[in-house]
Structure formats: C-alpha cells, structure tokens
Amino acid sequence: MSDNGKTPVDFWFDPLCPWAWMTSRWVLEVEKVRDIEVSWHVMSLAVLNEGREDELPEQYRDSLKRAWGPVRVAVAAAEQHGAQVLGPLYTALGTRFHNKGEGPTPEAVAGALADAGLPASLIEYMERGDYDTEVRASHKEGIDKVGQDVGTPVIAVPGADGEQIAFFGPVVTPTPKGEEAAKLWDGTLLVASVPGFFELKRTRTADPDFSNL
Q1: How many C-beta atoms lie closer than 10 Å to residue 185's C-beta?
Q2: Mapping DSSP to helix (H, G, I), strand (E, B) and coil, where does residue 11 land?
Q3: Which SUPFAM superfamilies does its entry note (predicted)?
Q4: Are the beta carbons of 22 and 175 closer than 8 angstroms?
C-alpha cells in the first residue's frame, strides 16, 4: 500500500500504441471503483525495436520513425513541470492520436500540450534529443521489471508479499467499464499473487475499439 492507503500501480506507455491507450483507459476506469493510485511513466517503441527494424513489417517500421517525437515531448514536460503532468498529457495525446484519428503529428502534439495546459514551447523537443537519456532510462526501468520479450503497455502491481510484479498488458478491447473493469483488475492482482505465474496469451482477433472512450 502507498502512504495514502491506496494500491500503487506503475504504468509505462508509448502514446503511439493504440493497445496501451486502451489499457490506460481501463486503469482510469479502475480508479473509479477500486482504491488505486497510478504513476505514469514513458517507454519507447523506438527504443524497444532498436536493432531489429529489418525484422519488422514495412508499415510498422514507418510508424516507428514518428515514435521519438511524442515521447521526447512527454519526458521534457515531466522533467520541466513534474511527473504529475504525464497523466493529463497522455490523456490529451491519446485522445488526439487515437480517438480523434489525428495521429502523432506535430499539430496533434501541439494541440495536446494546449489541452493539458502545458507550454507550447515544449513542441520543440519533438526534434531535439535533450532528454533522450531520460527517455531511455524510463524505458529501461519498465523493461527491467518485466523482461525483454514484451511491448507496451507495462504495468507493475503489488505481488503476494507486496513486491512489484510487472506484466505486459492486459491487452483488451473495448475498454472495460464499471464492474467489468473492476473484475479485470481483481484478476490482475490475483495472478500477480501467484508465485511463478508468467503468462496468459491468445491471438488477437479484433482491432482496438475506441467507440466507448
């Protein structure tokens, strides 16, 4: 438990990923029905896939070329204005990228900064590497907890003895609401409490559905 009695949840995201977006909205639903406290962290699909670009489909490789800009802006915002801005900024970015279909364009990032009440000047960091070391450090923190053969999102929750247990996912569409969100959360804590539990997986047969967001 955290100092305020809530269950701590650490959540690593790349704003480019639609599946991470779905999971993040689920976590916010859980906040309404369970006593949890989410801390947001950046991870990077560009960093995750470094050195293996030739193995990826061409369309995905092209998308990764746009992956650095948004995470750079997110980390710059957190470094300059405090980690508490990451949640609202992620909501603003994801709403524009995914719900509104604007994609990770400079215009969408600029709009998200305005939506989150952050300075417009942060857009400059899309093309600047001033905080790339911090991007990599945040990414490494999440990956070190969960392992190498995963993507985004990564969540870390308390295990049986209170130690952090990290997972990739849950990957879900559409975002569960209300008691459905609570049941998935309770199940996440349940599997985290089982020593030696590592994975449940099945082939995805649906695309991300943003219709209820």
Answers
A1: 23
A2: strand
A3: Thioredoxin-like
A4: yes
E-strand ranges in 46-161 read 154-158
43-58 average pLDDT score: 79
pTM: 0.91
Nearest Cα neighbor of 46 from 61, 33, 35, 34 is: 61
Non-local (6+) Cβ contacts of 156 within 8 A are 9, 10, 142, 145, 146, 164, 165, 166, 167
List, for residues 152-194, the tens digit of each pLDDT value. Answer: 899 999 988 888 999 998 999 999 999 999 999 999 999 999 9
Residue 199: CB atoms within 10 Å: 10
Antiparallel, parallel or unpaired: β 7-13 and 36-42: parallel
Closest alpha carbon to 19 in 39, 45, 38: 45
Q: What angle do CA 146, 152, 153 make, to 5 degrees?
A: 80
Instruction: Fill in the amino acid letter for 104.
Output: P
